[in-house]
Design brief:
Elements (H helix, E strand, L loop, with lengths): L1 H17 L17 E9 L5 E10 L2 E2 L7 E6 L2 E3 L1 E4 L5 E8 L18 H16 L5 E7 L3 E8 L2 H9 L9 H12 L5 E8 L11 H11 L1 E7 L6 H10 L3 E4 L6 H12 L3 E6 L9 E10 L2 E10 L6 E5 L3 E4 L4 E8 L9 E8 L5 E7 L10 E5 L3 E8 L8 E9 L6 E14 L1 E2 L1 E5 L1 E5 L16 E2 L10 E7 L11 E6 L5 E8 L5 E7 L6 E9 L2 E9 L2
Parallel strand pairs: 7-8, 7-10, 10-11, 11-12, 16-26, 17-27
Antiparallel strand pairs: 1-2, 2-3, 2-13, 4-5, 4-14, 6-13, 8-9, 14-15, 16-18, 18-23, 19-22, 19-24, 20-23, 21-22, 24-25, 24-27, 28-29, 29-32, 30-31, 30-33, 33-34
Length: about 550
Amino acid sequence: MRIANRFLLVCAVLLSLSTAQAQRFPLTAGLADSLFAMRITGLDATGFPDIAMKVKLFNGQRVVRDTTFTTIVASENGTIQRAQIVCPMRPFAAALVLDKSLSMAFYPNSMDPDPDSTRWNTAKGALHSFIDELSPIDECALVSFARNPRVEVTLTKDKKLLDDLLEGVKLASGTGIWLAVQSAINILAPRTESKAIILLTDGEDNSSGTTTMYKVASAAKKAGIRIFAVGLAEIGSRDLLTELADSTGGKYFFSATGADLADIYYEITAQLVDDCTLTYSTSEFCTDGTKRDVHLFGVLKSETATADTFYTAPLQIPGISFSLPVIDAVAAGGDISIRLTASDSLRSLGPLNFHTEVSYPADVVTYAGFSTDGLAFSGLPVSVIDQNGLLSISVDTIMAGGRGAVLMELLFKAKPLESAATARFTFSGTSFRRTCAYTVQTANSEMYVDGICEKLLQPAGSANVFLKQNYPNPFNTSTTISIDATKLDDAQRNHARIRVLDALGNVVATLHSGALPKGTMNLNWDASRLPSGVYTVELQSGAARQQRLAVKLQ
């Protein structure tokens, strides 16, 4: 029954992979029956959207060397990804260094002999387990030590020889740890493959040798040898063994009774074996800083294995701001055109989703429609719903070309008022998505509507001075601003001020202050140190004020 269930499970997985409509990968009951367990040993998202994971497969505590997955599936937040896995089979060279001092036959942390030599036999049993896990391409050496080291055998692939020699090791007096480690370094140093020393001891060095832990650590690092140290006693060289292992990229293990030695050696074997590398490029490639839950499902022959992890996508969401221009004055009953402008030119093709609400004073102006002719939203399905004081504006399309930073014009007509009034236009609920969602900032607008009986402000554009649109626009670092004062007489040219304001109304540059020359004047505005965005170029000459929008891109 179990085999039949697994066959159906594998078929279901393969069917889900071939179905284009499938979006979610189901977690299937019964996976706990599997002999195998998958372990994720590392995840690298620095190349986002490319994700790389280090994976190992285990059968119980034992690492599986010949990993050939029938099927491997990665799902991210429930969406299946196109994953690939590579499991290298490379050899390693190891040297087993075994403490054979007389204390190995004592009870743990005691000077009383154990007639059954339980700890000694358990230690040799753990080494036998390590030898049994060697693949035909691995090589292993055996070094035993009491006061002095003895090379039982140099590197060999003969597992039976290693087992026989290990059984023949006899206990002796003395503990020369560092000399034994140096002997193992001498054996491994010439080799080029991955190499490691696995040291097992229950005491501290009491030999009269000239070498030290620091010398053997330096020699091991120079030769590219990792040292894994296993301690069997609470006292002795625990601190030195920990430092030795850490400094060479290995690890220190402590076993109080020796009962867990086999598991420790299985773990050391797993660290010597190369990880499988699983890679995929996430289909959700927006850099939105969200947590991504990753589920792996593998089929190996008739068995299954799963693993779970997560990563956090980088937070690099682009920003964009939208603004409405400032209009000084409009005659009562006059037409008003307000351009909705973005801080970045909509250049690229692709999907576009935009929504905003613009509130306007229905007691001061009347909504008269909108226009997109020649602007960024030209030809797109723009929806504007007027709710008597609130415009709901939406654009949702799968393909939108780029036509600059001015999106559309909103058209209004000023009502006939008896006195001047301020009309305020404000954004709310603005969102913008072009493949990825942008962070949005908005700048509001206000204007004055002249009353019929008393005009408190002179409408813009009534003077004989003309502020031309800057060129180029949009621009990257600098742009040219032109002023035509040909029609001004000497008195009118006497004083003028030309400034640049940011989206919040702050003055970021004063380009001219004083008399205007006869004819046309060209001014260069260097904005290289300013952030990208929409800026307002303002000319004030006497009571007249004119403005143009300048868009800076990075």
